[in-house]
Amino acid sequence: MTEIRKAFFKAAKPRKKDRDILDIILQERPDLKGQNPRCAGEGNYGYAFIFNHEVVKAPKELNCYGDDEIVEAFQKEIKIQQLLAAQNLPVPHVTCTGQKAFFFGMQKINGLSLKDALSGVYVKLSKRQRKDIIHGIASFKAALEKTDLGALLPPEDDFALSPEELLLAREGLSAPVVQKILAAQAPDFSLALQKFLDDYPSRQPGIIHGDLHGGNILFDPKTGKISAFLDFGRVKRTIIPDAEFLHLQECYDPAFALAVQSAYQKITGKDVQAGSYLCLKALDMLAARTGIARREKAEDAENILKAAAEGLVSKYHYGAYRTALMKPSP
Ligand SMILES: Nc1ncnc2c1ncn2[C@@H]1O[C@H](COP(=O)(O)OP(=O)(O)O)[C@@H](O)[C@H]1O
Ligand SMILES: [Mg+2]
Fold it and tell me: Are 171 and 203 in a shared domain?
């Protein structure tokens, strides 16, 4: 157990199980006492306590600390946020980090979540404001890629296919049963998968926010602009940076997401293939199934590949993929 974790358990000891991480934060930040913070939703593993002028993020439960992955992710999030704020990106400045416990404070930014802003219930966005928002997201993405997050991001890429998986995917894709199903149900998907496989070795990695949705972007109705980007727990370097755009499409209406993609392409001159993440997932599955199929009897192998091919057209949101394929007008 690392020193900081030992210290955390010690600090946590007097507390009843779920009687709150807030106590611990207040031990270290007594100046925040009496503010009655609002707790903004629960993300994957954390709480965000909204005080008068600061927001403090902390892990959800003490037993999170049994999980090294969560600890690492949390520490990574803090460092990334510090680095981005230091580079003048629209990211809240980190105000404090817990000494005995894992938490960090940041400046509270004015604004409502972009999700709410876009819903039209709280504000009515003008065309100009909508355009600014689209441009704001695209430039943030472009700027994020230019920052050197270097050592903060592990070199392993959980999106990457190993050479062995690539080979299996290639075999799986060329299996007659898979070809037949794809040709009948999803011919353009089949072509895209082939192209993805062919281009794979020359792919360049890029940095993504990893959770870029309206809940993690603040819009300030007073200025009519984006006031901050939040939540850097899933920033990563990946060989499929286009994944961010598919994610955006899932979070917004496709027209909005495609406008962001188009603005990003204009700013960076990069060609985005938002469908590539889907291709990856599809081939990933095909590789896994092919691996299984190899160990099965011949007649079962056929069935497994058939199931995989059907999975490619149904499970991996073929609808979303089609939307991603529609190129925005330049
Ligand atoms: N610096 C901040 N200023 C204002 N609101 C914030 C700030 N940080 C977080 N919030 C609010 O808290 C919510 C949760 O924070 P977030 O960092 O997204 O955590 P989670 O990992 O739980 O999604 C955000 O959606 C936002 O509404
Ligand atoms: Mg969030």
Answer: yes
> If 0-12 CB within 10 Å is exposed, 13-18 middle and 19+ buried, where does residue 148 land?
exposed
Is the minimum distance from the CB of 43 to ligand 1 under 6 angstroms?
Answer: yes
| The residue to which tokens 């999030």 are assigned | 77
Helix (H, G, I), strand (E, B) or coil at 38: strand
Instruction: Pick 100 or 68 by higher pLDDT.
Output: 100
pLDDT value at 216 more than 60: yes
Q: Which domain holds residue 291?
A: 109-330
Q: Report which listed range, 35-39, 91-95, 200-204, is most confident.
A: 91-95
The SS3 assignment for 194 reads helix
Q: Exposed, middle or buried, 294 (CB in 10 Å: 0-12/13-18/19+)?
A: exposed
CA nearest ligand 1 atom 11, residue: 40
Mutate to test the pocket of ligand 1, among 44, 55, 95 (most ligand atoms within 8 A of CB): 55
Residue 147 scores a pLDDT above 70: yes
What pLDDT sits at residue 273? Answer: 82
Do 143 and 14 belong to one domain?
no
Measured from the Cβ of residue 303, the count of other Cβ atoms closer than 10 Å reads 13
Could you give the C-alpha distances from 171 to 62, 174, 286, 296, 298, in angstroms and in order?
Answer: 46, 5, 9, 15, 15
Centre of ligand 1 from the C-alpha of residue 148, in Å? 24
pLDDT band at 311 (very low <50, low <70, confident <90, very high): confident
* Domain co-membership, 93 together with 133: no
